[in-house]
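Internal ticket #5521
Category: modeling
Description: The requester needs a full-assembly model to guide mutagenesis choices. All entity lines are attached below as received. Residue total reported by intake: 1371.
Assigned to: D.W.
Attached entities:
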Amino acid sequence: MTNHWVDMLNADVVLIMGGNPAEDHPIAMNWLARAKEQGTYILHVDPRFNRTSSIADVFAKLRSGTDIAFVGGMINYAIEHNRIQQEYVREYTNASWIVGDGYSFTDGLFAGYDPKTRRYDKSQWTYALDGQGRPRRDPTLKHPRCVFQLLKQHFSRYDADAVCRITGTPKENYLRVCDLYTSTFAPDRAGTWLYAMGTAQHSHGTQNIRSYAILQLLLGNIGVAGGGVNAMRGESNVQGSTDQGLNWDGLPGYLRLPVEADADLKTYLSRVTPTSLDPANSANWLQNTPKYVVSLLKAWWGEHATSENDFALNYLPKLGAGFQGQGYAFLALTHAMLAGEIKGLFCFGQNPVVGGANARLIRAGMDKLDWLVVADLFEHETAGFWKRPGVDPAKIPTEVFVLPACSGVEKEGSIVNSGRWAQWRHQAVKPIADSRPDLDIVDGLAKAMKRAYEKDGVFPEPIRHLAWDYGEHADPHRVARELNGRFLVNVTEKDGKEFAAGKQVPGFAQLRDDGSTMSGNWIYCGGYTEEGNLAARRDTSDAPNKIGLHPKWGWTWPMNRRILYNRASVNRKGEPFNPRKWVIRWNAEQKAWEGDVPDGGMPPGEMNPFIMLASGVGQLYSPDVADGPFPEHYEPVESPVKNPFSKIQSSPCAQVWQSTEFDKYGKPDVFPIVATTYRVSEHWQTGAMSRNMPWLAGLVPSAFVEIGTALANREGIKNGDKVIVSSARGSIEVYALVTERFQPFFIEGQTIDEIGLPWHWGYAGIVPGDICNDLTASVGDANSHIPETKVFLCNIKKKNRTSA
Amino acid sequence: MNWRIRLTWWDKLLLAIMAAAAVVAFVRFATGIGTIANINNAYPWGWWVGYGIMTMIAIGGVGFTITALVEILGVHRYHSFLRPAVLMAFLCYAGAITMLMVELGRPWMVWMVLVSWAPTSALFEVGWCAFLYLTVLALEFSQVPLEQAGWDRTFRIVRAIYIPIMLLGVTLSHLHQSSLGTLMTLIPHKINALWWSDNLPLLYLFSAMMAGPAMAILEHLAAARWLGFAPRMDLLAGLAKIEAWLVGLFFAFQMGDLFYRGAADAMFIASWFAVSFWVEIAFGLMLPFVLLMMPEVR
Amino acid sequence: MSTSTVKPKVMIQDNTRCIGCRACMVACKSWNDRPEDKTDFFAGAGYQNPRDLDANNYNLITFNEIVTGAKPDWVFGRQLCMHCEHPACASACPTTAMFKTDLGPVVFDESRCIGCRACMQACPFIIPKYDYDSFAPKIHKCTFCADRLEVGMDPACATVCPTGAITFGDRDDMVTEAKRRIATAPGTYIPEIYGLEEVGGTSVLHLSSVPFEQIGYITGLPKTPMPDLTHRWLRVTAPVFAVLYAVFGALNWIVRRRMRRQGHDGEHT
Ligand SMILES: Nc1nc2c(c(=O)[nH]1)N[C@H]1C(S)=C(S)[C@@H](COP(=O)(O)OP(=O)(O)OC[C@H]3O[C@@H](n4cnc5c(=O)[nH]c(N)nc54)[C@H](O)[C@@H]3O)O[C@H]1N2
Ligand SMILES: Nc1nc2c(c(=O)[nH]1)N[C@H]1C(S)=C(S)[C@@H](COP(=O)(O)OP(=O)(O)OC[C@H]3O[C@@H](n4cnc5c(=O)[nH]c(N)nc54)[C@H](O)[C@@H]3O)O[C@H]1N2
Ligand code: SF4
Ligand code: SF4
Ligand code: SF4
Ligand code: SF4
Ligand code: SF4
Ligand SMILES: [Mo]
């Protein structure tokens, strides 16, 4: 989130699209309920009427997979009705930047597309530069090649009629959403955008989010109180785990892994450190990347990381091309497993044979493993994959180790919520039986590995030299202190400030690239300082601007900044656009900022507000996104509808796996119905945690599919009947819940039905059920590689009574 | 004496019923009442209370009606009906209480009613009255065995206190017969408007009174048949006439009440409630009234 | 604590804020140590489970799909003991095993219960439930978390409700609050507080966006306390007893005197 949960109270309009917080983030509904009581409008856009819709002021339905069309139309509406925050757009976005000649967009494709690799050559999308290599700008926004004009032109095709014809939204509802939401273009009004997996799990998920961001920028809604693009995060500490770089291609703090070509530190750093085209106006904070990288290497390899050995850079694994050139994100990884390329698997707190897309493929892949280590609270489907129904355990060679992990309440540590607040939790109860905190388990593993590598091993140094000093029983405080970082030698800064060796670093501005500081994660630097463990603070007092920042409650990265990009909430003189709900403001007398921790302490003026971006301005046009600088509507990879916007049917860059017998795709003649998958409040994900919890199991015991009354009548299905839902990849048997809340869509003259499957069931637990992901496909987004589990084609039939 | 047990067909049937009852009771205590009664959380009282206990007690009304007729109104012609009536009442009440023990969830706690003070509870009143009345009935009826066993002293004491005890019995009956109705006044939401009335206590009382002569007649006829004496048709005709008047009065009261409450419309709505209401009125009130009013039938 | 400081408590159930998450149901089970339900699919409309309150569920969220024209709506309702100001259940109980406490809860004392189910029969909201399958059955219903109130805690359900659909506090404050909500957002609420006047007032006040009968509430209840219906008769018990006894005594005395005069002594056989 750019903003945070409490900030919802500051919004005039909340748009929830691609998320169902009433069911998936129920505690967050506290803020939404309160906001609503104060008069905030809540708009909900979703394929079906769910528990969130029940409290929304306006519900607008859309067919799964058509967010870009929906939001593209809103962008068009805002521009057509001149509902854009002019000053903000002119000053704080790249609207005025002029795009180079290389860029073009014709019939669904941007310039530079290579159909063989299904990739774009992004170098064609660069800006036009002036003589000094700086981007050319036209502050009047009139230049036909300026970003604003290109944007306007691109989205002019998305008029309300064209949009509703493809999304299936009733036009009246659509216009109401457009009108209410774009009303927040006024500087003293703010709209917040909440989204989650309904947005992300698409072959164009990243572009869905891009479309939200573009609209928010046009309306001047980023950086302000009650605004922002806010991802409601998923797993309890998923924000923390992404911050720590638990992705296949990253390092802690969103630093990037070296690749083969990064022969030395210098090459690597020059590749990963962004440079600004416009240094005079851009703080380009990430130019400090070398300090963060070196401090990280010092944290990991301590005295063995020296300037002589490039701070042990070569101990880091190098990012390769991955399996079949597709990297090692989840889909590639599961295919690699099936191909026998991966021999062993650690599953810490994950249950992929239920949660992973194309789950039959994953189970087949597991059968090929030599060994599997599961650390979990329960013996879930993955831990027991070798004894699943229909399988002869004797035929599965895999050796399985199940390590009992203890749950969140049985251990101490920090959890980072969607709003980036790190909140320290204390141990409530002792772990049951022999279960242990994950930290203990990893600590034991690391120590054993170090002992083994002491003796011998291939390339043993990275393990042997690993700085691993968290105590006999790993202490989470030591880990947290390391993440923050400390001075390794006495340091005197340019301005004369002195820091003694061994002291905690007060903030990432003090991190250094000469090996004199270490920090396990630069964005967490400032959270566990000499002042103590700031994440454990529980002071509810508010900041003077009284917008619910509560700066002394827990701690927020970066530097306890509660609202990211908050310099965009003030004009170039440092005066808030909305003085009533100001986030920061410049006190000219004291020459200091007041309010939230500003995005960079420099005084107001020419310096652009988005300091984490090299350009310093919001990216209406983004040359860095794999599948195009602007979002464009494409149909999902499986869709019953021909894309009317261009001849390109589905995302040209999506990862569409074809290589195995499990990678089959359905055509609308056999599978005419759109299916989506989602969650219910009563269950957690793959169900390991909730289907083993009798009270929850009793509330929602059985796997089911929600289908509309019209479709049910046509298929002769009654509420409570057993039905078979099938896709090109498999079929499952579930109960039918017949409801008016799912209504057919009228798309381009035809009626399209959509059904919805909660995906929480598997063969383990006290209430087992068929695995929904047996139906989903190995299709991934071009940027994030997230599987397209929110939309695919299926068919549904009443279960034949005679075959029962 | 030389007893020889000779079981008649009737005896066998009765024994079979008793055996079945024992089994049912056993099942109930082993597995809870849910298995033996078609009652649920919304309708916690079923056959056992509605038919078993309520009707038993209403039938037991024979005791106080005949007592009142003979002892209080002094219609001594019917004196020969008195003891059988008291016996009948005693059996009915004892039966009702046995049923209650099966029906109550925690019968071992039933004494609680006697050590509680719950003046707002109709059941509390019913409980106390029934308890006292049973004692009274026992005392009243004890004269017979006491006399025959020749326990003169005790017999004399019982006889001496007979009058006040008898009066107590009649009064208590009036109270708890009506209290059973009071019990039902609390649940207008569960009783159709045709039956539910503010005046249920009076209706209950009257229906118990109605049951009195009718039961006495039945009892007399049955006894005559089994013990082989000729029924006193003259007396029976008199009772029948009383019964006819009671039925007539009850009917009038019930109709009056219905119209007074403005619930009369419900009689003419096509519903199962209305149908069963009419069946009840027709066979329970009108038919007997008409029949009993005809001297030839009497 | 002196009794004068005891302020009766009231719960607002604001269904317009309810998102049907059922945290309250789980919290209730947890606090009251109730076992799970053995269910299959859904017993009621939508995701509702179980269908009705029972001995293991003192608190039930109902799912009501309401379609106006082509527009579906999903409205949640809640069933739990209303903790009536004049509880019919307690008034019907012959042993005072069911009674109302000063703080508001109507509670059940197992050690006094005879299992007659008069309380169940009496409750106009059909709330108390029974262990039909037990040898030593108990009556079950929401306790208002009386044991928590005693130590100054709020009921478990009110504590976990994420949206403030359940609000708990002193009677006066809650009544004011309920009225304020309706007054400030007339578009959101129907102008009715369920429980304010029903059966003489209750300790749970429900608010709704749609008429209460549409979400399964029992409506049309009298505004007068239920126990009044029986009180009418029961309060005259003692005088009636006295009068009847006297009348019967007198009649009997007259009859006997007349008989003695006529010179026969009854027909004892
Ligand atoms: N109770 C509960 N809470 C959870 C979880 C859980 O399992 N149970 N999981 C947690 C995790 S890890 C995550 S990631 C989050 C996910 O949180 P959400 O994103 O809220 O989760 P979903 O229910 O998968 O999807 C949300 C909505 O997207 C809608 N949808 C489907 N297709 C589309 C589409 O094309 N466009 C749009 N706009 N909407 C669409 C679905 O109908 C659904 O209502 O929830 C977290 N919270
Ligand atoms: N069709 C479809 N598929 C989906 C999605 C969808 O919307 N539709 N959503 C996707 C999303 S967003 C996600 S996040 C994934 C989730 O997929 P998974 O992460 O595989 O699912 P979970 O059930 O959350 O698995 C978490 C496991 O961690 C265990 N656990 C809990 N606490 C601890 C702990 O402290 N330590 C350890 N070691 N274990 C612990 C739990 O018991 C549980 O088994 O599923 C994805 N799959
Ligand atoms: S599960 Fe945890 S994180 Fe999710 S809404 Fe509930 S309290 Fe919040
Ligand atoms: S709702 Fe029913 S059980 Fe609860 S106090 Fe009122 S009468 Fe008693
Ligand atoms: S069942 Fe128990 S609590 Fe209910 S009325 Fe009877 S004795 Fe009282
Ligand atoms: S007050 Fe207590 S007993 Fe009643 S519903 Fe709430 S949690 Fe359950
Ligand atoms: S906890 Fe609150 S919001 Fe959730 S179901 Fe219960 S009353 Fe409704
Ligand atoms: Mo997630």
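Resolution: model delivered.
Comment from assignee: The pocket of iron/sulfur cluster (ligand 6) is lined by residues C 27-28, 31-32, 58-59, 80, 142-145, 155-157 (CB under 6 Å).
Ticket closed.
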